[in-house]
Design a protein that fits this description.
The protein is of the alpha/beta class. Helices cover 31% and strands 26% of the residues. It folds into two domains: 2-159, Rossmann fold (3-Layer(aba) Sandwich), CATH 3.40.50; 188-320, Riboflavin kinase-like (Elongation Factor Tu (Ef-tu), domain 3). It has helices at residues 30-46, 59-63, 75-84, 97-100, 104-115, 137-146, 166-174, 178-184, 201-205, 300-320, and strands spanning 2-4, 19-22, 50-56, 89-94, 120-124, 150-154, 158-159, 162-163, 190-196, 210-213, 223-232, 249-257, 262-271, 282-292. Helix 7 (166-174) runs antiparallel to helix 8 (178-184). The two termini are 32 Å apart.
């Protein structure tokens, strides 16, 4: 369950008396997984709910709007992943100046003690909270002791000698290294958008594409990528009356189309072996690997040859990962 509340609402009873962890949890990676699984264990011990308390928008969007990074996951996707890890309730708290001005002690007493009535809490060792992030793990430990809240500190998880963090994953995605980013995530990285109407040039070439618009998460840099359709709403409403595209492999072009003199960056997904109508529907695509850079071709025939090669490579990547469902 995803519960959006306002700052003046008492938390519901089903959120109280259990174990909690607090944070952004952007991306939901393997480091988050360790914390969340511990919260699940603690919740079972105290016979209460396993709760994640998160923020929307993230505090950085309020404090440093000009430099706040694009998210790795939407709140809805974050909730879905956290639920898969065993969380009962994700509380999405509206971030505002009033919340950010709370001193750490006041934040702890307001959220953890009075609103959640938490019996246990688990955090990583870099956890900070309260005004100007003055609250740290030693303070949290002391506050838990004073209020008889069981506290568990978890060490950061490492991969290849480096901490697993949202910042690290963001840097990998920004560099186009999707495969390395996916090794740190609990599920492959997704981009989601609404299928818009493009120039329909791909259809005339024999390679129709779904043009994704209104993408809210971080997009990889310009390039051609392999992936697969992870979800769509096209089976719930018209005009999509064909088989679901979920599971179909995809070759995704992120960038301009220099062969035809276009310089606008677009996200064009060719869903391999699928012919359904997806216009105006939401679609999510899991990205697996970067195949090549975008480049200008000297002729349409050269472009078609390369597109055929891209499709074969994309299918091979999906088959190698065991994700091709048909």
């Amino acid at each position: 369950m995803n519960l959006s509340i306002d700052s003046h609402t008492l938390f519901p009873e089903e959120a109280q008396g259990g174990a909690v962890t607090i944070g952004n949890f952007d991306g939901v990676h393997r480091g988050h997984q360790v914390i969340v699984e511990q919260v699940r264990r603690l919740a079972d011990q105290v016979c209460g709910p396993a709760v994640v308390f998160t923020f929307d928008p993230p505090p950085s969007k309020i404090l440093r709007p000009e430099s706040a990074p694009k998210p790795l996951t939407s709140i809805e996707r974050r909730t879905e992943l956290l639920k898969k890890l065993g969380i009962d309730l994700v509380i999405v708290y509206p971030t505002d100046k009033q919340l950010l001005d709370l001193e750490p002690e006041a934040f702890f007493e307001t959220v953890v003690v009075r609103s959640l009535k938490a019996k246990a809490i688990a955090e990583g060792e870099n956890f900070q909270f309260g005004k100007k992030r003055r609250g740290d793990v030693p303070m949290l430990r002391q506050l838990c002791h004073e209020h008889k809240v069981q506290f568990t500190l978890l060490e950061p998880q490492r991969e290849a000698g480096e901490w697993i963090s949202s910042t690290r994953i963001r840097a990998l995605i920004e560099s186009g290294d999707i495969a390395s980013a996916n090794r740190l995530l609990i599920e492959p990285y997704r981009i989601s958008g609404i299928v818009g109407h493009g120039a329909e040039r791909g259809r005339t070439l024999g390679f129709p594409t779904a043009n994704l618009e209104n993408i809210q998460v971080l997009c990889p840099p310009v390039g051609v990528y392999a992936g697969r359709v992870a979800s769509t709403n096209c089976m719930s409403t018209p005009p999509c009356n064909s088989a679901s595209p979920i599971g179909f492999p995809v070759a995704i072009n992120i960038g301009p189309n220099p062969t035809f003199g276009e310089d606008r960056v677009k996200v064009e997904a060719h869903i391999i072996d699928y012919n359904g109508d997806l216009y105006d529907h939401d679609i999510s695509i899991e990205l697996f690997a970067k195949l090549r850079e975008v480049r200008k071709f000297d002729s349409k025939d050269q472009l078609l040859t390369q597109l055929a090669s891209d499709i074969q490579q994309a299918k091979a990547v999906c088959e190698q990962l065991g994700t091709l469902s048909h």
